[in-house]
Amino acid sequence: MQVRKFLLVVSFLIGATVQLHAQKITTQQYIETYKQLAIDEQRRTGVPAAITLAQGVVETQSGNGALCQQSNNHFGIKCKNTWTGKTIKYDDDAAQECFRVYETARESYKDHSDFLRSNPRYAFLFQFDGEDYKSWAFGLKQAGYATNKTYPQQLIKVIEDNNLQRFSLIALGKLSPEASEASSIGEGMANNGTVVNPKPRPVTGGSSNKHNQSSKPVAGNYPKGIFEINGRKAVFAKAGTSLIQLADQRDMRLSKLVRFNDLPSDAPLKKDMIIFLQKKAKKGGSEFHTVAKGESLLDVAQAEGIQLKWLRRRNKLHEGDQPAAGQKLALTGFSSNMPALAKNSREEEEDEEEEIAYQPPVKTPAKTPASQQNNSQTGGIPVAMIEDLKKNGDVTVSNGNSSAPATTPAVTPAQPPAKATMPAPSPSKPATPAPVASTPAPAPVKTTGGSTQYHDVQPKETLYGIARMYNKSVTQLQEWNNLQGFDIKIGQRLLVGK
Asked: In total, how many domains does the chain have?
């Protein structure tokens, strides 16, 4: 009998031990526990909170690693010659290496910041912007913080999967804690420390008929990372998001991202919206969609995961038509009647597309009496401008009249006159300068022989924007660089002049 009782007690203890080990901390719980420490350290030393938390997650397996649990060492920092505190032996790159021991997690976080700040090997990291977590991630590997070849990619993935960037923004004063909580989507933490998942709700303005059983997230409550709408993978992107950066992050071709989402160009997003990573379906997951106030046809297509052209076909709409609020759109079958349209919907959409597709011509400066005669012999273009255009190779010049003076050549534009964009006059001229649209400074250009020019694509740049920088058309850049659509990548070298 005693033996039997002994075996029962042993079995109970073994079961309890297994259950104890099975109750591991989740990544979300780790982040919620230590996010304020990371924010405080960024404010004190400048180490980005996103990087600190990501390193903590990777180095401790979200707080479940043996080294962390035995020593409060959250960043795998070894003893080194300068450490005078407690130590522990642990197998890492070699057997029984010496690691630092801390009394609390706060001490570990503080020592991590001081370790990076005081070590000359990491000094260059503090030249990076506090928001530039990618440069920090690769810089840590370059400086020798970790031996794992994929260490930067691991950090970046943790940051992006868990939206850790918001904590860096809080530390920099660019985001309030309240706004951060509102943007913290997907898995969250309840007051008692347990993990909770928000219930999905229908998109505002979505289908209201009783047959619609699919659940779609609403603005402000989108799942983090990738989620699905109508069986298609998508992410939620904020206004101003650079499509080229999004395509680079998701390892996609930019042209596909533009095409999958029925976007008119590769310009940064003008408003918050759902961005699909797969081609949308030809029909929706529900039968109808009721148009909400201010909701465009593209908004409906994104909310329901249906291709814009098929949404038009199913509702007898033409390109540019915008249904009025309250109209019910067919998503699966075909409507027998065309829905009522919003006033001036077609004209407004066409104007917006024209604004995106074309660069408005710059007005020529006012003529002075002294220059009118020369201008009349050069097609109305000042001679000073012609000289600049000749230097840039933008026009060809020939003497159409053998008796004409050499100073009054006839000008033949290389580009069609309707699309030509004239530069501002030289500062030496008294004429009033023409207004010039402000554009970002071009990236470093490599010139090789003659007038050949190259441009290295920078983050947040678009093909349209690059074409405007160099007074070229998008079509020219596409032809010269053998591009299909808007497909460019960060760091790609483009031929922009020859």
From this structure: 4
